[in-house]
Description:
Layout: E1 2-7, E2 10-13, E3 18-26, E4 32-39, E5 46-51, E6 58-60, E7 68-73, E8 78-83, E9 92-100, E10 117-118, E11 122-127
Parallel strand pairs: 2-11
Antiparallel strand pairs: 1-3, 3-8, 4-5, 4-9, 5-6, 7-8, 9-10, 9-11
Amino acid sequence: QVQLVESGGGLVQAGGSLRLSCAASGRTFSGYAMGWFRQTPGKEREFVAAISRSGMNTAYAESAKGRFTISRDNAKNTVYLQLNSLKPEDTAVYYCAADYSTNYYGTPKTNRNEYDYWGQGTQVTVTS
């Protein structure tokens, strides 16, 4: 089992930046592809970004391309999400998730139903 703890959320003005972190403990972190998702009240949790076990392959939602960057440090058991050029519509609770994967270099998954473990979330609020 993997325990995930997100941090780094907060209140920021439009155009600003935040860096989210997700620290993992438990089983071997490098055995999991990692993803970031977000959710607002009344809406389904949506995909934001994902990264393969190796860190060499990434995937992004269209809304995140060019503004957000996902990365991981397997030595620190941590995955990051750099949020730049933030917009009010980015306001949400951001969750990290772990997908047990046998493919070290494979394209990470974008479907939330295929992730095995979830953190508790961190709130990001962007004001106009």
